[in-house]
Amino acid sequence: MLANYLKLALAVLRRRKFFTFVSLFGISFTLAVLLVVTALLDSIVNGYPPETNLERTLGVRDMVMMSPDGKNTWQGPAGYGLLDKYVRTLPSAEKVSILSAEAYWVAAYKNGSKFDVGFKYTDGEFWQILDFQFLEGAAFTADDEKNANFVAVISKSLRERYFGEANAVGKTIEIDGQRFRVVGVVPDVPVYRFTPFADIWVPISTSKSTTYKNELMGGFQAIILAKNAGDFPAIKAEFREALKHAQFPDPKEYNQLYGGADTVLESIARMMFQAPEFDTHVERLVAIFFTLMLLFMLLPAINLVNLNVSRIMERASEIGVRKAFGASRVTLVGQFVTENLVLTLCGGLIGFILSIAVLHFLNTVQIIPYGKGDFHINGRIFFYGMCIITFFGLFSGVYPAWKMSRLNPVQALKGGV
Amino acid sequence: MIQLEHIEKVYRTDSLETVALSNINVAVQQGEFVSIMGPSGSGKSTLLNMLGLLDEPTAGTIALHGKPLQSFRDKELAQVRNREIGFIFQSFHLISDLRVVDNVEIPLLYRKGLSGSERRKLALEALDAVGLTSRTKHFPTQLSGGQQQRVAIARAIVGKPSLLLADEPTGNLDSAMSEEIMSILHELNQKRGTTIAMVTHDERLATQTDRTIRIFDGRQVQ
Question: Which of A84, A153, A219, A321 has a CA between 20 and 30 Å from the CA of residue A396?
Protein backbone atom coordinates (compact mmCIF):
# COMPACT_ATOMS: atom_id res chain seq x y z
CA MET A 1 0.00 0.00 0.00
CA LEU A 2 2.84 2.35 0.91
CA ALA A 3 4.47 1.80 -2.49
CA ASN A 4 1.19 2.74 -4.17
CA TYR A 5 0.94 5.89 -2.04
CA LEU A 6 4.53 6.86 -2.81
CA LYS A 7 4.05 6.24 -6.52
CA LEU A 8 0.98 8.48 -6.53
CA ALA A 9 2.62 11.12 -4.34
CA LEU A 10 5.58 11.43 -6.71
CA ALA A 11 3.28 11.46 -9.74
CA VAL A 12 1.22 14.30 -8.22
CA LEU A 13 4.40 16.24 -7.46
CA ARG A 14 5.60 15.81 -11.05
CA ARG A 15 2.24 16.79 -12.51
CA ARG A 16 1.71 19.90 -10.37
CA LYS A 17 5.05 21.55 -11.01
CA PHE A 18 4.18 25.04 -9.77
CA PHE A 19 2.53 23.73 -6.63
CA THR A 20 5.54 21.50 -6.04
CA PHE A 21 7.97 24.38 -6.56
CA VAL A 22 6.13 26.73 -4.18
CA SER A 23 5.79 24.03 -1.54
CA LEU A 24 9.36 22.81 -1.82
CA PHE A 25 10.70 26.36 -1.74
CA GLY A 26 8.81 27.16 1.46
CA ILE A 27 9.83 23.95 3.17
CA SER A 28 13.46 23.91 2.09
CA PHE A 29 14.05 27.60 2.87
CA THR A 30 12.45 27.28 6.31
CA LEU A 31 14.38 24.14 7.13
CA ALA A 32 17.67 25.55 5.87
CA VAL A 33 17.33 28.64 8.09
CA LEU A 34 16.35 26.54 11.11
CA LEU A 35 19.19 24.08 10.55
CA VAL A 36 21.78 26.83 10.18
CA VAL A 37 20.57 28.48 13.40
CA THR A 38 20.52 25.09 15.15
CA ALA A 39 24.04 24.30 13.91
CA LEU A 40 25.28 27.66 15.23
CA LEU A 41 23.59 27.12 18.61
CA ASP A 42 24.81 23.52 18.73
CA SER A 43 28.31 24.74 18.15
CA ILE A 44 28.00 27.13 21.12
CA VAL A 45 26.02 25.02 23.57
CA ASN A 46 27.54 21.58 23.03
CA GLY A 47 30.97 20.25 23.73
CA TYR A 48 33.42 20.81 20.93
CA PRO A 49 37.19 21.17 21.47
CA PRO A 50 38.49 22.63 23.63
CA GLU A 51 35.23 22.38 25.59
CA THR A 52 34.96 18.60 25.33
CA ASN A 53 34.08 18.33 29.04
CA LEU A 54 31.18 20.72 28.69
CA GLU A 55 28.59 18.12 29.69
CA ARG A 56 30.20 17.95 33.17
CA THR A 57 31.15 21.60 33.47
CA LEU A 58 29.34 24.39 35.30
CA GLY A 59 30.18 28.06 35.21
CA VAL A 60 29.78 30.90 37.71
CA ARG A 61 29.53 34.07 35.67
CA ASP A 62 27.18 36.97 36.42
CA MET A 63 26.30 37.64 40.04
CA VAL A 64 23.96 40.08 41.76
CA MET A 65 24.97 41.84 44.96
CA MET A 66 22.15 43.59 46.82
CA SER A 67 21.82 46.17 49.57
CA PRO A 68 19.96 45.27 52.81
CA ASP A 69 16.80 47.07 51.63
CA GLY A 70 17.06 45.53 48.15
CA LYS A 71 17.06 48.96 46.49
CA ASN A 72 20.66 48.95 45.34
CA THR A 73 21.88 46.13 43.19
CA TRP A 74 25.22 45.48 41.56
CA GLN A 75 24.94 43.06 38.70
CA GLY A 76 27.90 41.83 36.71
CA PRO A 77 30.73 39.33 36.59
CA ALA A 78 31.85 37.79 39.84
CA GLY A 79 35.01 38.95 41.59
CA TYR A 80 38.13 36.87 42.06
CA GLY A 81 37.79 37.04 45.86
CA LEU A 82 34.31 35.55 45.79
CA LEU A 83 35.27 32.79 43.37
CA ASP A 84 38.49 31.95 45.19
CA LYS A 85 36.80 31.80 48.58
CA TYR A 86 33.42 30.27 47.76
CA VAL A 87 33.80 28.34 44.50
CA ARG A 88 37.29 26.92 44.63
CA THR A 89 36.38 25.33 47.97
CA LEU A 90 33.18 23.56 46.85
CA PRO A 91 33.47 19.97 48.15
CA SER A 92 31.76 18.24 45.19
CA ALA A 93 33.82 19.99 42.51
CA GLU A 94 36.60 17.93 40.93
CA LYS A 95 38.48 20.96 39.61
CA VAL A 96 37.82 24.69 39.61
CA SER A 97 39.43 27.29 37.39
CA ILE A 98 39.17 31.06 37.73
CA LEU A 99 39.65 33.19 34.67
CA SER A 100 38.73 36.55 33.15
CA ALA A 101 34.99 37.00 32.61
CA GLU A 102 35.76 37.71 28.97
CA ALA A 103 38.73 38.32 26.74
CA TYR A 104 39.95 41.91 26.89
CA TRP A 105 40.94 43.48 23.61
CA VAL A 106 44.40 44.92 24.10
CA ALA A 107 46.84 46.43 21.69
CA ALA A 108 49.87 44.55 20.39
CA TYR A 109 52.58 45.93 18.14
CA LYS A 110 54.76 44.19 15.60
CA ASN A 111 57.01 45.85 13.06
CA GLY A 112 55.40 49.19 13.74
CA SER A 113 51.84 48.02 13.09
CA LYS A 114 49.19 47.77 15.77
CA PHE A 115 46.61 45.03 16.09
CA ASP A 116 44.07 43.97 18.71
CA VAL A 117 44.57 40.80 20.68
CA GLY A 118 42.08 38.92 22.86
CA PHE A 119 43.76 38.74 26.28
CA LYS A 120 42.66 36.51 29.15
CA TYR A 121 43.89 35.81 32.67
CA THR A 122 43.65 32.19 33.74
CA ASP A 123 45.13 29.78 36.22
CA GLY A 124 46.80 26.36 35.96
CA GLU A 125 43.53 24.39 36.34
CA PHE A 126 42.15 26.08 33.22
CA TRP A 127 44.40 23.90 31.07
CA GLN A 128 43.31 20.75 32.88
CA ILE A 129 39.58 21.39 32.55
CA LEU A 130 39.70 22.49 28.92
CA ASP A 131 41.01 20.16 26.27
CA PHE A 132 43.51 22.19 24.22
CA GLN A 133 45.66 20.37 21.68
CA PHE A 134 49.08 22.02 21.87
CA LEU A 135 50.75 22.74 18.54
CA GLU A 136 53.94 23.67 20.40
CA GLY A 137 55.09 23.54 24.00
CA ALA A 138 52.67 23.07 26.87
CA ALA A 139 50.39 24.95 29.24
CA PHE A 140 51.65 27.05 32.11
CA THR A 141 51.18 25.44 35.49
CA ALA A 142 49.69 26.23 38.89
CA ASP A 143 53.21 27.02 40.04
CA ASP A 144 53.60 29.59 37.25
CA GLU A 145 50.40 31.18 38.51
CA LYS A 146 51.51 30.98 42.14
CA ASN A 147 54.91 32.53 41.36
CA ALA A 148 53.50 35.16 38.99
CA ASN A 149 55.74 33.97 36.17
CA PHE A 150 55.36 36.08 33.04
CA VAL A 151 54.55 33.17 30.75
CA ALA A 152 51.85 32.87 28.10
CA VAL A 153 50.06 30.44 25.86
CA ILE A 154 49.20 32.00 22.51
CA SER A 155 46.90 31.09 19.63
CA LYS A 156 48.10 29.87 16.24
CA SER A 157 46.95 33.10 14.58
CA LEU A 158 48.82 35.27 17.08
CA ARG A 159 51.95 33.19 16.51
CA GLU A 160 51.63 33.75 12.75
CA ARG A 161 51.15 37.49 13.16
CA TYR A 162 53.93 37.89 15.69
CA PHE A 163 56.51 35.31 14.71
CA GLY A 164 55.59 34.37 11.15
CA GLU A 165 56.23 30.72 10.29
CA ALA A 166 58.82 30.23 13.06
CA ASN A 167 58.24 28.41 16.35
CA ALA A 168 57.20 30.68 19.21
CA VAL A 169 57.99 28.68 22.36
CA GLY A 170 60.78 30.31 24.34
CA LYS A 171 60.35 33.66 22.56
CA THR A 172 59.02 36.82 24.15
CA ILE A 173 55.85 38.65 23.26
CA GLU A 174 54.94 42.15 24.43
CA ILE A 175 51.29 42.79 25.14
CA ASP A 176 49.81 45.86 26.81
CA GLY A 177 53.20 46.95 28.02
CA GLN A 178 54.12 43.61 29.61
CA ARG A 179 56.51 41.00 28.24
CA PHE A 180 55.59 37.33 28.41
CA ARG A 181 57.64 34.25 27.52
CA VAL A 182 55.64 31.96 25.25
CA VAL A 183 55.39 28.44 26.69
CA GLY A 184 52.74 26.97 24.38
CA VAL A 185 50.78 27.47 21.17
CA VAL A 186 47.21 26.20 20.69
CA PRO A 187 44.79 26.21 17.73
CA ASP A 188 42.55 29.26 17.35
CA VAL A 189 39.40 29.25 19.46
CA PRO A 190 36.28 30.69 17.80
CA VAL A 191 35.17 33.97 19.33
CA TYR A 192 31.73 32.58 20.21
CA ARG A 193 33.30 30.05 22.62
CA PHE A 194 33.11 32.68 25.33
CA THR A 195 34.86 30.76 28.10
CA PRO A 196 38.03 29.52 26.37
CA PHE A 197 38.35 32.24 23.69
CA ALA A 198 41.45 34.43 23.64
CA ASP A 199 44.58 35.03 21.58
CA ILE A 200 46.81 35.00 24.62
CA TRP A 201 46.33 33.43 28.05
CA VAL A 202 48.51 34.51 30.95
CA PRO A 203 48.55 33.76 34.72
CA ILE A 204 46.15 35.90 36.78
CA SER A 205 48.95 36.75 39.17
CA THR A 206 50.74 38.74 36.43
CA SER A 207 47.98 41.31 36.70
CA LYS A 208 49.29 44.86 37.15
CA SER A 209 47.31 45.23 40.39
CA THR A 210 46.53 42.89 43.26
CA THR A 211 43.30 44.55 44.41
CA TYR A 212 41.28 41.95 42.48
CA LYS A 213 42.21 39.29 45.03
CA ASN A 214 39.63 40.34 47.63
CA GLU A 215 36.84 41.64 45.38
CA LEU A 216 33.41 40.01 45.51
CA MET A 217 32.32 41.53 42.20
CA GLY A 218 34.12 42.30 38.98
CA GLY A 219 35.89 40.85 36.01
CA PHE A 220 36.10 37.11 36.62
CA GLN A 221 34.29 33.84 36.11
CA ALA A 222 34.85 30.31 37.35
CA ILE A 223 34.45 26.99 35.59
CA ILE A 224 33.74 23.97 37.70
CA LEU A 225 34.49 20.46 36.50
CA ALA A 226 32.25 17.86 38.13
CA LYS A 227 32.99 14.13 38.19
CA ASN A 228 29.79 13.75 36.18
CA ALA A 229 26.61 15.69 35.48
CA GLY A 230 24.94 13.83 38.35
CA ASP A 231 26.96 15.98 40.75
CA PHE A 232 25.50 19.22 39.37
CA PRO A 233 22.65 19.49 41.92
CA ALA A 234 25.06 19.00 44.81
CA ILE A 235 27.50 21.61 43.45
CA LYS A 236 24.69 24.10 42.82
CA ALA A 237 23.32 23.55 46.35
CA GLU A 238 26.77 23.89 47.92
CA PHE A 239 27.39 27.16 46.07
CA ARG A 240 23.97 28.51 47.04
CA GLU A 241 24.68 27.62 50.66
CA ALA A 242 28.13 29.22 50.48
CA LEU A 243 26.64 32.48 49.21
CA LYS A 244 24.34 32.65 52.23
CA HIS A 245 27.38 32.82 54.46
CA ALA A 246 29.38 35.22 52.28
CA GLN A 247 31.24 37.91 54.19
CA PHE A 248 30.79 41.46 52.93
CA PRO A 249 33.32 44.27 53.37
CA ASP A 250 30.56 46.71 54.30
CA PRO A 251 27.32 44.83 55.18
CA LYS A 252 25.42 48.10 55.47
CA GLU A 253 26.04 48.78 51.79
CA TYR A 254 25.66 45.24 50.43
CA ASN A 255 24.75 42.13 52.34
CA GLN A 256 23.14 39.71 49.83
CA LEU A 257 24.65 37.75 46.95
CA TYR A 258 22.75 35.89 44.27
CA GLY A 259 23.94 33.80 41.37
CA GLY A 260 24.40 30.23 40.37
CA ALA A 261 26.66 27.56 39.07
CA ASP A 262 25.15 27.25 35.62
CA THR A 263 25.37 25.15 32.47
CA VAL A 264 25.93 27.13 29.26
CA LEU A 265 22.21 27.21 28.55
CA GLU A 266 21.46 28.37 32.09
CA SER A 267 24.10 31.07 31.79
CA ILE A 268 22.51 32.38 28.60
CA ALA A 269 19.08 32.34 30.27
CA ARG A 270 20.42 34.15 33.34
CA MET A 271 22.03 36.77 31.10
CA MET A 272 18.92 37.21 28.92
CA PHE A 273 16.41 37.50 31.73
CA GLN A 274 18.77 39.32 34.13
CA ALA A 275 17.60 36.78 36.66
CA PRO A 276 18.68 38.03 40.08
CA GLU A 277 17.24 34.98 41.84
CA PHE A 278 18.77 31.57 41.99
CA ASP A 279 16.40 30.45 39.24
CA THR A 280 17.87 30.97 35.75
CA HIS A 281 14.52 30.65 33.87
CA VAL A 282 16.11 28.23 31.43
CA GLU A 283 12.67 26.73 30.75
CA ARG A 284 11.50 30.18 29.63
CA LEU A 285 14.48 30.44 27.27
CA VAL A 286 13.74 27.02 25.75
CA ALA A 287 10.04 27.91 25.46
CA ILE A 288 10.88 31.20 23.70
CA PHE A 289 13.26 29.38 21.34
CA PHE A 290 10.65 26.76 20.42
CA THR A 291 7.93 29.41 20.07
CA LEU A 292 10.11 31.41 17.68
CA MET A 293 10.89 28.24 15.77
CA LEU A 294 7.18 27.39 15.57
CA LEU A 295 6.28 30.92 14.43
CA PHE A 296 8.96 30.74 11.78
CA MET A 297 7.54 27.43 10.55
CA LEU A 298 3.95 28.58 10.81
CA LEU A 299 3.86 30.77 7.71
CA PRO A 300 5.13 28.19 5.18
CA ALA A 301 3.12 25.50 6.97
CA ILE A 302 -0.11 27.51 6.67
CA ASN A 303 0.78 28.19 3.05
CA LEU A 304 1.11 24.45 2.46
CA VAL A 305 -2.15 23.76 4.32
CA ASN A 306 -3.82 26.29 2.05
CA LEU A 307 -2.35 24.76 -1.09
CA ASN A 308 -3.32 21.27 0.06
CA VAL A 309 -6.88 22.29 0.83
CA SER A 310 -7.18 23.90 -2.60
CA ARG A 311 -6.17 20.58 -4.16
CA ILE A 312 -9.20 18.83 -2.65
CA MET A 313 -11.36 19.92 -5.57
CA GLU A 314 -8.80 18.63 -8.01
CA ARG A 315 -8.63 15.23 -6.36
CA ALA A 316 -12.31 14.88 -5.48
CA SER A 317 -12.90 12.16 -8.07
CA GLU A 318 -10.00 10.08 -6.76
CA ILE A 319 -11.27 10.43 -3.19
CA GLY A 320 -14.74 9.33 -4.33
CA VAL A 321 -13.30 6.28 -6.09
CA ARG A 322 -11.18 5.28 -3.13
CA LYS A 323 -14.13 5.62 -0.77
CA ALA A 324 -16.37 3.64 -3.11
CA PHE A 325 -13.84 0.82 -3.22
CA GLY A 326 -13.45 0.57 0.51
CA ALA A 327 -11.11 3.26 1.81
CA SER A 328 -12.17 4.39 5.26
CA ARG A 329 -11.62 7.96 6.49
CA VAL A 330 -8.65 6.84 8.56
CA THR A 331 -7.06 5.14 5.55
CA LEU A 332 -7.50 8.27 3.43
CA VAL A 333 -6.01 10.47 6.15
CA GLY A 334 -3.06 8.07 6.20
CA GLN A 335 -2.66 8.29 2.44
CA PHE A 336 -2.73 12.06 2.20
CA VAL A 337 -0.49 12.54 5.23
CA THR A 338 1.97 10.09 3.65
CA GLU A 339 1.87 12.09 0.42
CA ASN A 340 2.50 15.28 2.34
CA LEU A 341 5.36 13.69 4.22
CA VAL A 342 6.91 12.66 0.90
CA LEU A 343 6.66 16.28 -0.23
CA THR A 344 8.14 17.63 2.99
CA LEU A 345 10.90 15.00 2.94
CA CYS A 346 11.84 16.14 -0.59
CA GLY A 347 11.81 19.73 0.68
CA GLY A 348 13.79 18.61 3.71
CA LEU A 349 16.43 17.01 1.53
CA ILE A 350 16.83 20.27 -0.39
CA GLY A 351 16.84 22.13 2.95
CA PHE A 352 19.67 19.91 4.21
CA ILE A 353 21.68 20.56 1.05
CA LEU A 354 21.05 24.32 1.32
CA SER A 355 22.04 24.40 4.99
CA ILE A 356 25.22 22.43 4.30
CA ALA A 357 26.05 24.95 1.57
CA VAL A 358 25.39 27.92 3.90
CA LEU A 359 27.46 26.37 6.71
CA HIS A 360 30.24 25.62 4.24
CA PHE A 361 30.12 29.29 3.22
CA LEU A 362 30.28 30.41 6.87
CA ASN A 363 33.18 28.02 7.45
CA THR A 364 35.04 29.24 4.39
CA VAL A 365 34.71 33.01 4.72
CA GLN A 366 35.82 34.46 8.04
CA ILE A 367 32.64 36.26 9.06
CA ILE A 368 33.07 35.05 12.64
CA PRO A 369 36.65 35.45 13.95
CA TYR A 370 38.35 32.07 14.13
CA GLY A 371 35.02 30.42 13.27
CA LYS A 372 36.53 28.64 10.31
CA GLY A 373 35.43 25.06 9.81
CA ASP A 374 33.53 24.91 13.07
CA PHE A 375 29.91 24.66 11.85
CA HIS A 376 28.55 21.43 10.48
CA ILE A 377 25.51 19.16 10.38
CA ASN A 378 26.18 16.34 12.80
CA GLY A 379 23.98 13.40 13.79
CA ARG A 380 22.23 15.42 16.47
CA ILE A 381 21.36 18.28 14.09
CA PHE A 382 20.29 15.78 11.44
CA PHE A 383 17.94 14.29 14.06
CA TYR A 384 16.56 17.76 14.90
CA GLY A 385 16.12 18.42 11.17
CA MET A 386 14.21 15.18 10.70
CA CYS A 387 11.99 16.11 13.68
CA ILE A 388 11.31 19.52 12.13
CA ILE A 389 10.47 17.94 8.74
CA THR A 390 8.17 15.37 10.32
CA PHE A 391 6.45 18.03 12.40
CA PHE A 392 6.11 20.21 9.30
CA GLY A 393 4.71 17.30 7.26
CA LEU A 394 2.19 16.33 9.91
CA PHE A 395 1.20 19.88 10.81
CA SER A 396 0.56 20.88 7.20
CA GLY A 397 -0.90 17.53 6.18
CA VAL A 398 -3.30 16.39 8.84
CA TYR A 399 -5.97 19.08 8.51
CA PRO A 400 -6.23 18.94 4.68
CA ALA A 401 -6.15 15.14 4.87
CA TRP A 402 -8.92 15.12 7.45
CA LYS A 403 -10.95 17.54 5.31
CA MET A 404 -10.42 15.38 2.22
CA SER A 405 -11.40 12.24 4.09
CA ARG A 406 -14.69 13.85 5.16
CA LEU A 407 -15.83 14.37 1.57
CA ASN A 408 -19.15 12.79 0.73
CA PRO A 409 -18.28 10.06 -1.84
CA VAL A 410 -21.29 10.85 -4.02
CA GLN A 411 -20.43 14.55 -4.17
CA ALA A 412 -16.76 13.70 -4.65
CA LEU A 413 -17.53 11.46 -7.63
CA LYS A 414 -19.49 14.31 -9.16
CA GLY A 415 -16.34 16.41 -8.80
CA GLY A 416 -17.77 18.67 -6.10
CA VAL A 417 -16.73 19.21 -2.50
CA MET B 1 -29.18 -10.32 -1.84
CA ILE B 2 -29.70 -6.62 -1.20
CA GLN B 3 -32.99 -5.24 -0.01
CA LEU B 4 -34.15 -1.64 0.25
CA GLU B 5 -37.36 -1.04 2.22
CA HIS B 6 -39.35 2.21 2.42
CA ILE B 7 -36.36 4.24 1.37
CA GLU B 8 -36.71 8.03 1.50
CA LYS B 9 -34.03 10.48 0.52
CA VAL B 10 -34.59 14.17 1.13
CA TYR B 11 -32.03 16.89 0.50
CA ARG B 12 -32.57 19.91 2.71
CA THR B 13 -31.18 23.41 2.52
CA ASP B 14 -32.19 26.46 4.59
CA SER B 15 -35.00 27.31 2.21
CA LEU B 16 -35.59 24.20 0.13
CA GLU B 17 -36.49 20.58 0.60
CA THR B 18 -35.99 18.24 -2.36
CA VAL B 19 -37.36 14.74 -2.27
CA ALA B 20 -34.97 12.58 -4.31
CA LEU B 21 -36.48 9.21 -3.41
CA SER B 22 -39.82 8.36 -1.87
CA ASN B 23 -40.96 5.00 -0.52
CA ILE B 24 -38.64 2.87 -2.62
CA ASN B 25 -38.84 -0.87 -2.09
CA VAL B 26 -36.30 -2.81 -4.11
CA ALA B 27 -34.90 -6.29 -3.69
CA VAL B 28 -32.16 -7.55 -5.97
CA GLN B 29 -31.71 -11.30 -5.89
CA GLN B 30 -28.43 -13.19 -6.08
CA GLY B 31 -27.36 -13.64 -9.73
CA GLU B 32 -29.85 -11.13 -11.15
CA PHE B 33 -28.99 -8.54 -13.81
CA VAL B 34 -31.26 -5.59 -13.11
CA SER B 35 -31.49 -2.31 -14.97
CA ILE B 36 -32.69 0.95 -13.44
CA MET B 37 -34.31 3.40 -15.83
CA GLY B 38 -35.82 6.83 -15.59
CA PRO B 39 -35.49 10.34 -16.98
CA SER B 40 -32.69 12.68 -15.87
CA GLY B 41 -33.15 13.80 -12.28
CA SER B 42 -35.63 11.06 -11.51
CA GLY B 43 -33.46 9.64 -8.71
CA LYS B 44 -32.04 6.53 -10.37
CA SER B 45 -28.42 7.39 -9.58
CA THR B 46 -29.44 8.23 -6.00
CA LEU B 47 -31.00 4.78 -5.81
CA LEU B 48 -27.80 3.22 -7.14
CA ASN B 49 -25.82 5.13 -4.51
CA MET B 50 -28.12 3.66 -1.84
CA LEU B 51 -27.52 0.17 -3.22
CA GLY B 52 -23.79 0.89 -3.14
CA LEU B 53 -23.87 2.17 0.46
CA LEU B 54 -22.35 5.43 -0.73
CA ASP B 55 -25.26 7.50 0.53
CA GLU B 56 -27.44 7.21 3.61
CA PRO B 57 -31.21 7.21 3.29
CA THR B 58 -33.22 9.80 5.23
CA ALA B 59 -35.57 6.99 6.20
CA GLY B 60 -35.95 3.27 5.48
CA THR B 61 -33.68 0.28 5.79
CA ILE B 62 -30.98 -1.34 3.66
CA ALA B 63 -30.05 -4.96 4.26
CA LEU B 64 -27.29 -6.93 2.59
CA HIS B 65 -27.53 -10.72 2.77
CA GLY B 66 -30.36 -10.14 5.26
CA LYS B 67 -28.20 -8.01 7.55
CA PRO B 68 -29.39 -4.42 8.22
CA LEU B 69 -26.64 -1.83 7.73
CA GLN B 70 -28.03 1.31 9.42
CA SER B 71 -25.91 0.95 12.54
CA PHE B 72 -22.66 0.39 10.61
CA ARG B 73 -19.94 2.97 11.11
CA ASP B 74 -17.74 4.45 8.39
CA LYS B 75 -15.03 1.82 8.77
CA GLU B 76 -17.51 -1.09 8.72
CA LEU B 77 -19.36 0.28 5.70
CA ALA B 78 -16.02 0.74 3.93
CA GLN B 79 -15.21 -2.93 4.57
CA VAL B 80 -18.61 -4.06 3.26
CA ARG B 81 -18.16 -1.97 0.09
CA ASN B 82 -14.67 -3.36 -0.35
CA ARG B 83 -15.68 -7.02 -0.03
CA GLU B 84 -19.16 -7.08 -1.51
CA ILE B 85 -19.57 -4.27 -4.03
CA GLY B 86 -17.86 -3.19 -7.24
CA PHE B 87 -18.58 0.11 -8.99
CA ILE B 88 -18.48 1.09 -12.66
CA PHE B 89 -18.99 4.77 -13.41
CA GLN B 90 -20.11 6.55 -16.57
CA SER B 91 -16.94 8.69 -16.64
CA PHE B 92 -14.67 5.80 -15.63
CA HIS B 93 -13.04 7.71 -12.74
CA LEU B 94 -9.61 6.22 -13.33
CA ILE B 95 -6.68 7.89 -11.57
CA SER B 96 -4.68 9.43 -14.36
CA ASP B 97 -1.39 9.41 -12.42
CA LEU B 98 -1.46 5.65 -11.93
CA ARG B 99 -0.80 2.97 -14.55
CA VAL B 100 -3.64 0.70 -15.59
CA VAL B 101 -2.55 -2.17 -13.34
CA ASP B 102 -2.16 0.17 -10.34
CA ASN B 103 -5.66 1.53 -10.94
CA VAL B 104 -7.04 -2.00 -10.94
CA GLU B 105 -5.23 -2.82 -7.70
CA ILE B 106 -6.96 0.01 -5.78
CA PRO B 107 -9.76 -2.07 -4.17
CA LEU B 108 -7.20 -4.65 -3.04
CA LEU B 109 -5.18 -1.98 -1.23
CA TYR B 110 -7.95 -1.79 1.32
CA ARG B 111 -8.19 -5.54 1.84
CA LYS B 112 -6.17 -6.95 4.70
CA GLY B 113 -3.84 -9.89 4.32
CA LEU B 114 -2.93 -9.51 0.66
CA SER B 115 0.70 -9.16 -0.28
CA GLY B 116 1.89 -6.91 -3.08
CA SER B 117 2.54 -9.87 -5.39
CA GLU B 118 -0.90 -11.32 -4.69
CA ARG B 119 -2.50 -7.97 -5.48
CA ARG B 120 -0.55 -7.73 -8.72
CA LYS B 121 -1.53 -11.29 -9.72
CA LEU B 122 -5.23 -10.63 -9.09
CA ALA B 123 -5.08 -7.31 -10.95
CA LEU B 124 -3.50 -8.97 -14.00
CA GLU B 125 -6.15 -11.72 -13.89
CA ALA B 126 -8.91 -9.08 -13.84
CA LEU B 127 -7.33 -7.27 -16.78
CA ASP B 128 -7.08 -10.56 -18.60
CA ALA B 129 -10.78 -11.11 -17.99
CA VAL B 130 -11.60 -7.86 -19.82
CA GLY B 131 -9.03 -8.47 -22.57
CA LEU B 132 -6.50 -5.83 -21.59
CA THR B 133 -3.36 -7.81 -20.82
CA SER B 134 -1.38 -5.81 -23.35
CA ARG B 135 -2.21 -2.46 -21.74
CA THR B 136 -1.26 -3.05 -18.12
CA LYS B 137 1.62 -0.56 -18.08
CA HIS B 138 -0.23 2.18 -19.93
CA PHE B 139 -1.66 5.27 -18.29
CA PRO B 140 -5.44 5.78 -18.62
CA THR B 141 -5.03 8.77 -20.95
CA GLN B 142 -3.20 6.53 -23.42
CA LEU B 143 -6.32 4.36 -23.85
CA SER B 144 -9.56 4.75 -25.81
CA GLY B 145 -12.87 5.34 -23.98
CA GLY B 146 -13.86 1.69 -24.37
CA GLN B 147 -10.51 0.51 -23.07
CA GLN B 148 -10.77 2.85 -20.10
CA GLN B 149 -14.18 1.48 -19.25
CA ARG B 150 -12.78 -2.04 -19.47
CA VAL B 151 -10.08 -1.02 -16.99
CA ALA B 152 -12.85 0.33 -14.77
CA ILE B 153 -14.66 -3.03 -15.02
CA ALA B 154 -11.44 -4.86 -14.16
CA ARG B 155 -11.10 -2.59 -11.12
CA ALA B 156 -14.71 -3.32 -10.17
CA ILE B 157 -14.33 -7.11 -10.38
CA VAL B 158 -10.77 -7.53 -9.06
CA GLY B 159 -11.98 -8.02 -5.50
CA LYS B 160 -14.57 -10.60 -6.68
CA PRO B 161 -17.56 -8.68 -5.29
CA SER B 162 -20.96 -10.32 -5.21
CA LEU B 163 -22.71 -7.14 -6.42
CA LEU B 164 -21.66 -4.98 -9.34
CA LEU B 165 -23.21 -1.52 -9.66
CA ALA B 166 -22.88 0.25 -13.00
CA ASP B 167 -23.95 3.88 -13.42
CA GLU B 168 -24.58 4.37 -17.13
CA PRO B 169 -21.44 2.38 -18.02
CA THR B 170 -21.93 2.96 -21.74
CA GLY B 171 -23.05 6.58 -21.47
CA ASN B 172 -19.78 7.97 -22.80
CA LEU B 173 -19.18 5.29 -25.44
CA ASP B 174 -20.21 4.75 -29.03
CA SER B 175 -22.52 1.88 -29.92
CA ALA B 176 -19.78 -0.60 -30.86
CA MET B 177 -17.95 -0.03 -27.60
CA SER B 178 -21.25 -0.11 -25.71
CA GLU B 179 -21.90 -3.58 -27.09
CA GLU B 180 -18.43 -4.63 -26.07
CA ILE B 181 -18.98 -3.45 -22.50
CA MET B 182 -22.44 -5.02 -22.33
CA SER B 183 -21.09 -8.35 -23.49
CA ILE B 184 -18.46 -8.25 -20.71
CA LEU B 185 -21.18 -7.49 -18.14
CA HIS B 186 -23.34 -10.34 -19.44
CA GLU B 187 -20.40 -12.70 -19.29
CA LEU B 188 -19.69 -11.69 -15.68
CA ASN B 189 -23.34 -12.20 -14.81
CA GLN B 190 -23.75 -15.52 -16.57
CA LYS B 191 -20.38 -17.18 -16.11
CA ARG B 192 -19.38 -15.84 -12.70
CA GLY B 193 -22.87 -15.39 -11.31
CA THR B 194 -22.17 -11.78 -10.38
CA THR B 195 -25.28 -9.82 -9.43
CA ILE B 196 -25.48 -6.60 -11.45
CA ALA B 197 -27.56 -3.44 -11.09
CA MET B 198 -27.13 -1.00 -13.96
CA VAL B 199 -28.51 2.50 -14.45
CA THR B 200 -29.17 3.25 -18.10
CA HIS B 201 -31.03 5.61 -20.36
CA ASP B 202 -30.95 3.14 -23.19
CA GLU B 203 -34.14 1.07 -23.50
CA ARG B 204 -32.35 -1.32 -25.84
CA LEU B 205 -29.73 -2.13 -23.16
CA ALA B 206 -32.41 -2.45 -20.49
CA THR B 207 -34.18 -5.12 -22.51
CA GLN B 208 -31.01 -7.21 -22.34
CA THR B 209 -31.29 -7.43 -18.52
CA ASP B 210 -33.47 -9.75 -16.40
CA ARG B 211 -35.80 -6.95 -15.29
CA THR B 212 -36.09 -3.19 -15.16
CA ILE B 213 -36.84 -0.95 -12.18
CA ARG B 214 -38.36 2.31 -13.38
CA ILE B 215 -38.09 5.51 -11.35
CA PHE B 216 -40.01 8.71 -12.01
CA ASP B 217 -39.82 11.80 -9.81
CA GLY B 218 -38.22 9.80 -7.03
CA ARG B 219 -40.95 7.21 -7.05
CA GLN B 220 -40.78 3.61 -8.14
CA VAL B 221 -43.23 3.14 -10.99
CA GLN B 222 -42.41 -0.44 -11.87
Answer: A321
